Amino acid sequence: MGQVSEESSSAHPEPVASLRSFVPSVYGPTALFGLGQGAVLPVLALSARELGASVGTAAFVAAMAGLGQLLGDLPAGAMTARIGERRAMIGASAMTAVALLGCVLAPNVPLLGLAVLATGAGTSVWGLARQSFLTEAAPVHMRARALSSLGGVQRIGTFGGPFIGALAISRWGIDGAYWVHLVAAAASVVLLMLLPDPGRHAAARSPGGPGPSLVAMLRSQTRVLRTLGVAALLVQAARQARLSVLPLWCEQIGLDAAATSLVVGISGAVDMLFFYPAGSVMDRFGRAWVGVPSMVVLGLAHLALPAARTPATVVVVAIVMGIGNGMGAGLVMTLGADASPPLGRATFLGAWRLVSDTGGFAGPLLVAGIAAIAPLAAASVAVAVVAIGGASALRAWIPPPPARQPVGRSSV
Questions:
Q1: 48: which of 61, 115, 156, 313 fits an S-S bond (Cβ 3.0–4.6 Å)?
Q2: What is the per-residue pLDDT for 316?
Q3: What SS3 class is residue 246?
Q4: Per-residue CA distances from 292 to 48, 319, 373 (Å)
Q5: Which domains does the chain have, with CATH numbers?
Q6: From CA 72, how far away is CA 53, in angstroms rounded?
Q7: Cβ(377)–Cβ(306) under 8 Å?
Q8: CA geometry: angle at 335 spanning 128 and 135, to 5°?
Q9: pLDDT in tens, 359-406
């Protein structure tokens, strides 16, 4: 297709021989940040309810985190390009900490909504900066494993966060969940500031002076954004929609909140098992070998969900969903990294994440809109159509992989 840029591997030295070198300064802070997010996400709507919001308003307040992430993507790219990845991550953690204090101290629903919006913007900067850093620092033959591991570590943190948050809530009330995120964000800053940067000797800054402006970047990358970017949008829409469809279906067949949480937890646990194998397959055989099957499996699971009428069958479908979603761990980040130009990489990634995050924000809205006028089964089928569409788009627009080169054992 011609858009995908693999130049960084040949234009710059590859100083990193092992993903282990990223553990202290990238994966460690990411796990902490994910843990904090996992602690807070379940209580955003509850905080709004405590301040007197209706159920609908509380749901809107919770959605402000996703909206903040969406609105922050383009500024995050510009900020990261200007000050660098590490400083951007530290700044994002600080911004998130201030926003979390705002959530704790908010005296009314509008101020709480603004604070939640700010947490989403901080998450956007953090996510873009870490993706940009790994894109620069990891050799191309390890790129998918580096980024899928990043996504996997984030998922592990997010999976464990609600349990830590529940312990804090049992002692300090709902505010305890926000304090968990605050402590986790502070700890991630400490790691980022004190531990060595594994990519510091890489030619991480693009040569040739300042990169192109955002407008120039969008013009030059229009084709990749309207092809591969649309595929990423569909992928993210299907992934995020499943987080709405599955618990709603559990409720519809009569499962209580505890059983529903268990089903979703089982799906998430299966999901986490696949991140490194997915990255390994992408590195060795190409991105389409993972992306297309991932979306097909996720689509088939959503087609099967309306037939699941017992707890056992719902668990089976949830496991299949976890497999499909886990197979695609790191896929969207890897595609964005592949397509990013060496000059103005962070700016491009901001635009890339805006497109993909639009899908993530639209997926649950699609479920809500269809469920409001039709049976929930119709919404599940619609998500299946989106997933299959994503598989078709990935097959059409992911370029063929370059000729395979031997990968040493030290790349793990």
A1: 61
A2: 96
A3: helix
A4: 39, 18, 31
A5: 17-198 (1.20.1250.20), 211-402 (1.20.1250.20)
A6: 26
A7: yes
A8: 50
A9: 988 988 888 889 888 899 999 999 999 999 999 999 999 988 765 544
